[in-house]
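We read letters as residues; the fold follows as tokens. Both lines appear below.
***
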Amino acid sequence: MEHILQHFIDNTPELLNFLAGYFPEAEFTGASDQQIIAHYISTNNKETVLQVQKELEGLKGDTETLQFISREINRHFETTPETWDWVIKIKEMYALKVAEVD
């Protein structure tokens, strides 16, 4: 799992910040995924927001990556396909929100 972390640090640092920095708190605040995305986009500069979108689009659905994401966002998914479905939903919601503010 540590090599996946290093991969994220080296290749998708903004995405790592977005996932690990914003989603775990939702458990305590009750924020929805949509609210988390909106908050992130409204509190970061356009360059960072667009970089996260690019990094999100490049995500692959391999098991190790999805397990890492699940761990970083502090959520339990029953299956790897369920995690991938969540990632796809986040990609779509993020893109829509970026388009709204653009």
Q: What stands out?
A: Residues 22 and 36 are 7 Å apart (CA to CA). The chain has a mean pLDDT of 94.
